[in-house]
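User: Here's a protein and a ligand (adenosine monophosphate). What would the complex look like?
Assistant: Let me lay out the input and then the predicted complex.
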Amino acid sequence: MIDEQEIQKAGWNFDNTYASLPSLLYTKLSPVPVNSPEFVILNERLAESLGLNVQSLKSDEGISVFAGNRLPEGAEPLAQAYAGHQFGHFTMLGDGRALLLGEQMTPEGGRYDIQLKGSGKTPYSRGGDGRAALGPMLREYIISEAMFGLGIPTTRSLAVVTTGESIVRETMLPGAILTRIAASHIRVGTFQYVSQWGTVEDLRTLAEYTLERHYGHREAKNPYPTLLQEVIKRQASLIAQWQLVGFIHGVMNTDNMVVSGETIDYGPCAFMDTYDPATVFSSIDRQGRYAYRNQPYMAAWNLARFAETLLPLLSADEEEAIKIAEAEVSQFFELYQSNWLRGMRAKLGLLSEEAEDESFIKDLLDLMEKHQADYTNTFLALTFDNPGDSALFSSGEFVEWKERWQGRINRQQESRESSHQLMRNSNPAVIPRNHRVEAALEAAVEEGDYSVLRQLLQVLENPYAHTREQLEYSQPPEPSSCGYRTFCGT
Ligand code: AMP
Ligand code: MG
């Protein structure tokens, strides 16, 4: 028997402001109950920061909420409507297998979306089963938490439960539900949806709501160019951070870009081992549209789509509106580049700025590409002056580059120690390498052994700690596991 009062003890404290937006933006409905939910993993620290009680969340009552079998008081579940450009083609989408339960108000006054992913069919399911498999939900858990550990804005993973039901993919797989936490789920695609099917008033309401929720209330005379500018700024910073750690999102469709500036939708994403700007992991991205080197361009493309949706708000005069939009979008590359350059300088321990830094950094990257160096480990080796035996470190060109680098460091006023500290704090000891993630998932899904996954999560928690334990996790894969492929619709 589920005790309803017990559910409330978990500390759920919902507000539902999204449900007060124009009704075209969502469909209210409840999750589809599942057979026999079982606890898999709970992010205890995250739970506590949300004002939730860990013991209650792990009880049968707590699990029934994560499974969608019971609703906490105050939840007003809804599926969000959105559209999106998928690989360049505009489509109507929406939450086909997710539901927003509400916005958890935290003890610190924060507001976070609580979303169940894999909670059953919705009016937006388009022939899909509304469900998710255990492996991909655990994969999202690992990688989103790794991103958080790296200090990169991201949605987070609170819990995974299995449903006790099998789902049909290429084979039968165990079903699971992920509870995702986000600053919000307002996507570029949400604006596209309203722009296509709503009124200008609907659009204005959504824009006002977004400004209020993510950018504080601004008294600006014309707040809409400010909204565009702020979203562009956050994306420029976010994409630079992805590039700096070698993260490849894999499916940068406009529905997978949120205006809060968090990384969202961990489908076919993966981290790069060997440095190659053309790297693409997603099996369906045959053109390499979302390859590592294209990510800034794709972000700019998505932001141009976002700007288009705002045109009626930017100015009553269309030509003028287009001018404003173009001026803002054209800022993206400069913003991106300065974020990236700042990050790269930090990775190389450069505390000052010199005009040649950009070409100097590019020379290193070119050599890394030529000698097929491991991206993460090259920077680690430089940080700890630990050459290893890679082709890169033994090449004459690199030895020359390294001398230039040493000269560059010596020209700084700052101490060598502060330079080293900066490098330690900017070059992660570990990233969630694909072979490690796969090993953790295999043990969990095939054998019900979660120890490998827990260990991996622990190592990824603070990637800048540079502990002995992390050393083992910094090993690149054996050559046989190169050519890694990831899959969409997981
Ligand atoms: P994604 O690739 O996760 O960004 O998903 C793209 C769209 O497909 C979104 O509208 C999802 O809600 C929907 N979708 C993905 N998988 C399923 C599924 N198993 N059942 C229903 N809809 C799905
Ligand atoms: Mg998506």
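Summary: The chain has 19 helices and 13 strands.
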